[in-house]
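Q: I'm writing up a methods section and want to include an example of the input and output format. Could you take the sequence below and give the corresponding predicted structure tokens, formatted cleanly so I can copy it straight into the document?
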Amino acid sequence: MKRILSFILFVAVSLVATFTALAAGQEEKGTATSQVTLLFWPGPESDAMRKVIDAYNIGEGKTDGVSVKQLLFSRQGFFDRELKDLAAASTQFDLIPVTTYTLGSYAPYLAQIDSYATADAVKLFIPSTLDTLRLKGNLYGVPTEVSVHFLYYRSDLISRLQSDRSWAEKYSQIAKSVLGQDMTPQDPADWIWNDYLATALFFTKALNPDSPVTYGTVLQLKNLIFNIMIWDDVLASNGGNWLDAQGNVIINSPEARASLQIYQTIIDNKATPPGSTNYEFPETNMAFSTGLAATALQWNAAFPILNDPKRSPLVAGKVGIAPIPAGSAGHKTHEHSLGIGLNNASKNKDAAGKFLAYLLSQGGMEIYAMAGGTPPVSPVLSAMATKRPDFSKVAEYLDKYGYIINDGTASYAVPVYQILADEFSEVWTGQKTIDAALANGALRMTSTISK
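A: Here is the clean output for your methods example:
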């Protein structure tokens, strides 16, 4: 019995030694897995990126010896926290989101990634989107998502509004009563802001008890910089801007005042849900997809959600897309690129670089697009145009209506967005007048820019 036990112990010890040696040999050959952490915020972009990460981890990541995971920070205050961590040389994450509007602030803490952008990879991407993440000729991020804004509308309701005489008459009555104008329903592709307002008012039960929905539109009014980006469309379409060509702050202007008044008209007439002061991307989608609202000003990333029969069964197949309504300067849409950059303090640069190389491949971007993202990769957009009709609109609106607000890529862009979010949210919650918000916003902007 003792001989048997001794033999078993000998075999066990031998096996452990063998497996230890094999593991050591694998590490020597570089096959040990390196853990890379990608920082992100909750939302459609990180949801789509998770699909890319999953595919990488079970595919190329095995060969590379790299495993990627996501770390999510809240969307509110995200950029302030991210910048503080970068400035503190945090190694909590290796890869981070970087955008057109944060590049100026983040670049001092990012590693240049030009070495991963091979000639073949560069050819895949729409050139202007690579340029949005370059600073002084150096690339600091892989553009994975291009963003524009759409006017979404219920195509079934708007179609009836244009063909039903009784609806058209009621529309005209409400427009005359509230806006003081004689108006008739127009095609959303041709809307100016008064067309948007009149339609929103018509489909609001507080003004039209027979409306099939409760609210005519849904505004994103939460104190959040992304919501100011949408409002900037109103400002730009009315000929306004943050700064003039000489860099002077011009936010306290008739154009900005008129643009805030458009939102205020919606709020005053209860044409947006009362909870809109806490709304951002997901809440806006919920209001539209559940049949609560007839229109919405929303990011292009919402289309695959709103038009999905499983996620939005009440409105799927009835989601119309049009340009943001026009002002005196025509239709306008904010544009920017979201990309993935490399934390210069990362202790895993080589491993993180392998994932960046994957993001620069057509295969990686195809997965991102299939998961609901909008990568600025021409072959991917072209191949998916039938399945994703919004892709053609993204390309069209970028070409015709896209703009970047003056100094929207400066190091102080995010602080300025936050200043406007602070000031305007007080207007939208009834705590401050439009004039007071614009005057104080201009003072705060001037102080921030001059530092």
